[in-house]
Amino acid sequence: MKTQAICAIATPPGSSALGIIRISGNDLKNLTKQIFSKDLLNRKAILVSILDDKTLLDNCISIFYETPSSYTGEDMIEIICHGNQVIMNSILSLLNKIGVRLAKPGEFTERALFNDKVDLIQAEAISDLISASDSHAVKAAHNSLSGKFADEIKMICDKILATRAEVESVINFPEDDDVPELSITNIKKSLSKILADIEGLIKKSKKGLALNNRPTYAVVGKPNSGKSSLINSLLREDASIVTSKTGTTRDSICYQLNIDDSIINIIDTAGIHETNDEVEKEGIARSALSIAKSDRVLYLVDDDQGLTEEDKNLIEKYDIKDYFLVFNKIDITKKEPKITTTKPQEIYVSVKTGQGMHLVEQTIKTAFESDNSSENIYLARGRHIECLQDGQKHLIDSDKAANEKSLDFLAEELRLSHLAISSILGQNPTEELLTEIFTSFCIGK
Amino acid sequence: MQNYDVIVVGGGHAGCEAAHASARLGTKTLLITMKLDGIGQMSCNPAVGGIGKSHLAREVDALDGLICKAADQASLQSRVLNSSKGAAVRATRIQTCRDEYKKAIQKEIMHHENLTVLQSTVKSIDFELKKVKGVILDTDEVLEAKTIIITAGTFLDGIIHMGEKTFSAGRVGDKSSIELENYFRDNGFNVQRLKTGTPPRIKTSSIDFENLEQQDSDNPIPMLSYLHDHYGQPIDKILKLPCFITHTNLSTHNIILNSKKHSPLFNGKINSVGPRYCPSIEDKVYRFSDKESHQIFLEPETSDNLEIYPNGLSTSLPLEIQKEFLKTIKGLEKCEITQPGYAIEYSYFDPP
Fold it and tell me: Which of these, A16, A135, B266, B296, is most buried using a 10 Å CB contact count?
């Protein structure tokens, strides 16, 4: 492919010891000859000066990657210069002057895709890897990147293809005595096998989807049970708030909690109780919403009062299913911190003294890990799930068509199913799809 | 120097439809062909429609094109395929009389307003600043046009292979277009080679149809065109001729297997690829060696039914071997070849 050379700063903006500028294009050695003080060597880091006419811009390490053994598959150069924005910008202007233009978002990976260095799923996984902010998401992104997810999709596509081939050949070669009679029973058998495969994959991928959208735990309880203090304690203990942002509601606030590199959303909710106060009522309604959208609940109880009928009613009324009971204020009731193995698990703590808080953290972490433990989960994107479901729907329709022995509808539904699922691999990708995918990348990658 | 809006080079299916469509739009059009009588000539199987192409033919028909109307007029045997399989996959196919078909096409092409026909050979394209300006004939005459349409079929540097023999031809009996091919090759077009083939033709009176399966037209006789009342031709006037079905057998296959070194497709003489849907008999026998038999349709070529097209026997083996293996096939024991089968290699290029 004949393309214009592109360049971009690969490191984050701001000052740092080093900054990296990447260039990709055809025949880069010739194109950039005039700006380097020496010839670059393939896959060797060498010290060169970058010269604008005769003015020295910077002394840097430059590495040349000869096509096709590079990230994009084209010639590539990495310039490791001093991490000063002024220096890097002047190098970019110099590159522009010799015909290297600034890369559009995601353009390096787009070129890698066009040059068959990565497939579409891998390209998406690269984007996810860049934006992944905890170790589990990184692992899942690597699962997708390594092509395991693509392999499963390919396997399903192959099975659909085989079934299609059977049906299509009967339709396309009606006069050929070489084509065996179509057995509707066999077709239906194959369809049900493929449907089971798709269902299994959707399940595994959904987990990955949840992983990409961080797990959310809500802290719920009656007023003054110590919810906000618990959250403050968790956040302060760790001193690792990534960001905190006020939720859409006035009373439910969502924080990001980092426990040993596992990042979860934790929601502080308004205390729930019977009230006639309009503002409080609204806050409680929002608490209910937070409960509904959370994956798990930490239900806080004042140990001095114990688990009351009111608490039990609240748990039932708000349909709280996956929860831990946290008994607070053991400093008053003079109990030892502990965690039970009952269902639901009970944790005895004092937020005030910090007793037992490590048990809360541990429980959150264990729950998080069990949610995400499977090695086989995929960091599937919403698009992947939609395509799988679309393919599933068309397969169900092909089964109906098979029942009615209408071969034309059978063939067409199979085709639509195949199209839907193979589009996950970027086969038949449309320009819109690519634009959408590549603009979600950070610049230059 | 003469000026046209559109010049079409080539007078086959594509060229005729292009020239006629252009003229219908009121555009001043010229069709250039190397042989006037070759306009509308069907090089290979004289069939129109079928599973792979009836939708295409009917789309052309919906645009008031020629192919369906001419095929209806020349119909010998006409069937709807997949009639039991759902409306969306049914396909009409007509075995036509190749002479009648050509006559119907020529009548339209030769007598249409805005459409001029010229027998000549184009040797190159005249460009001005990357914009097409006209064509240059082998007489060095320049004909100007805003648009040039090349519909060369198998004629660009066509080379026929028949066993060890090779010769230059656009199809058997016609010259190929070499200068134009060289022009494209030398002027930046990405020229590649394709191959296709055709079976030997057999004298009808030399075939014993007695014990062969007969395949008649459907009743009522299906038509391809939706637009015309078949030129006022009453349906019962359409000539009905049956096709027959026979099969190759192990003796046929043995002869073909033993002649592999004589087949230009397999001895390295032909390297270009052919269409997947019409494999040669050599291809079928070599690649599916476990099959004991292949189906052959014996199709009439013309309304006077002098020649038979044995569909499924496309071959480039030497004539002697063609004769030998044909005689092993039921009904063809005493057959006489009227035109040998051959493979043809030709050049093509993607539009710029």
Answer: B296
